[in-house]
Amino acid sequence: MDLQTRKLRYFLAVADELHFSRAAARVFLTQQALSRQIKELEEELGVQLFERTTRSVALTPAGESFLVAVRDLLDRFDDAVATARRTDRLLSGRIRLGFIPGAALELTAPIMTAFRAAYPDVEVEMREFPANDPSAGLASGVTDVAFIRLPQGTQRIETEDLFVDPVVAMVAEGHPLASRTSVAVRDLLAHPMTLSGTTDEVYRAFWGLYDARETPGTFVGVTSVTEETSLVSAGAAIGVTGAAVMTYAPLPGVRFLPIEDWPGSRVAVAWHLGERSAAVARFVDTVCGVRDRERDLVARIEARGRVEGS
Q1: What is the pLDDT at residue 88?
Q2: How many C-beta neighbours within 10 Å does residue 201 have?
Q3: In terms of DSSP bridges, do strands 157-165 and 145-150 run parallel, antiparallel, or are they unpaired?
Q4: How does pLDDT run across 42-73, given as a tens digit for each residue?
C-alpha cells in the first residue's frame, strides 16, 4: 500500500472514530495532536479537514464532503483488489513450456508441483527440444515459456537466471586426459570435440570454446546428449557439457573432468519479450519463488562438477 493510500485510510479511521464516539475521539486526538499524516494530507489538499480546539476535534464541512468521496474511493479500490485476486486464483488456459534436456534439473519437480497446486486450471504442455534448438521453441514461436541455457543468441526474449551449472569435459576412459582430476581449456583445444549443429553462433561459441581458440577446431556434430556421450564413450571425440550430465546421463566408459578456467552455463526461464500472458507471468513468478525458496538445492546443483577449492 502506498503512502497516499495509507493517509486516506488513516483519515477514514479518524473520521469514523469521531462519528462513533466523540468523547473517545477527543481524548485520542488531543493526545496525538492529529497525526502528521493528517496534517500532511491537509497541506497537500490545501483544505482544512478537521476543526481543532483545546477541548474538541470535529470534521469541517470540507472534511465531511471529503469523507464521503474517500469512503467511496477506498470501497471501489478494495473491490478492485478482491476482483484481481479472485481472477488470479481462477486463472485458466494453457502454457506451452519448452525445455532443453534436463529442464531446470532438480528444481523442475518442485516448480511444476507448486504451479499446479496454485493454478490447477492452467494446462502446462511440456515439450523437450533437441540440441540444435537451444531456444527450446521460443525462436520459432512454438512455445510460450522455456527452460534454456545461456549464453545464446535468441532474439527478443527475456530471461531470469535460476542457477549456474558448472561446465565439465567428457572424455573416454582410455583418453590421455582421463587420468587427470581437472583440466584447463588449453588441454582440450587440440582434440576433436562434440558440438551442437545449431545455427546459434553465440551458443556454439560457448560450448566450442571459441574464445580460447587461435585456429578453428575439429568438431563432431551431435543432436542429443545421449548421442554426445555415446560418441565420447567410443573415443570419437571429447565433449564440453554441463555438470548435470554426470547425474542425468552418465554412461559407462566416460569420465567427467572439471574445467578450471571456463565459466558455467546459466540455466534460466525465458519468455517472449513484451508478450508475457497472465498465465506465463504467474509461471515465471512461481519459478522464481521456488528458486528463492530452495536455496540449499540450488547450492548443491552449483557445487556439482566444480574444481575442488574453487
Answers
A1: 53
A2: 12
A3: unpaired
A4: 888 888 888 877 677 788 888 888 888 888 88
- The grid coordinates of residue 227 equal 548421442
Residue 128: which residues within 8 A CB-CB, separation 6 or more? 98, 99, 100, 101, 103, 136
Q: Are 250 and 228 in contact (CB under 8 A)?
A: no
Alpha-carbon separation of residue 58 from 20, 33, 103 (angstroms): 12, 13, 64
Asked whether the beta carbons of 49 and 38 are under 8 A apart, the reply is yes
For 284-290, the CB contacts below 8 A with 24+ separation are: 284/145, 284/160, 286/111, 286/114, 286/115, 286/118, 287/104, 287/107, 287/111, 287/115, 287/160, 287/162, 288/160, 289/114, 290/107, 290/110, 290/111, 290/114
- The stretches of the chain forming alpha helices (DSSP H) are 3-20, 22-32, 36-45, 61-89, 108-118, 201-207, 225-233, 245-248, 278-293, 295-303
> DSSP 3-state assignment of 266?
strand
pLDDT at 175 over 90: yes
Please name the residues in contact with 104: beta carbons below 8 A apart, sequence gap of 6 or more: 111, 147, 162, 267, 269, 287
